[in-house]
Amino acid sequence: MSAGEALALVYELGRNNDEDFEEDFAMDITETLKQLATDSHKYRAKKDRKQQRATFRDILQFIESDTVPEIQVKFGKEVLVLDTWTRRKQYDTLCNILGPSINIHLTENELLRDIFEIVGPPPTTEIPTYAQNQMERNRKVIKLVP
């Protein structure tokens, strides 16, 4: 599956740089992608076959009709749209590196906001007044105890 994703990246970047690249590449690789998108070998686990077929169907659809399945990632009050293979791969790699803290980084990390072209300042998180009052009461209790 990683090889298929790499092919999609090569196709996407090559197409942007050379007009003839699209025709040559598509003719050479389409048949192989069709086989991988319908693979039914029993020696692979059912879950792996399902994932492989879905991935290669997406790649084949991208090469044949120039459509990338759009993925929307919600974090806080913002939405990140992954509409190219390059962005998808960048996001997947960062998820593997940062793990569950990816949402915090997307909100607060200026570099990631620049990479994914997230416009506007990060939203501020305000503490509700009830929680503020609770915190103030706890501070007073702590100060009173010698």
TrEMBL record:
Domain named Interferon-related developmental regulator N-terminal is located at 1-64
Which spans are transmembrane here? none
Xref: InterPro entries? IFRD, Interferon-rel_develop_reg_N
Coiled coil start-end:
none
User: Lineage in the entry?
Assistant: Eukaryota, Metazoa, Ecdysozoa, Arthropoda, Hexapoda
Q: Which Pfam families match?
A: IFRD (PF05004)
Protein name per its UniProtKB record:
Interferon-related developmental regulator N-terminal domain-containing protein
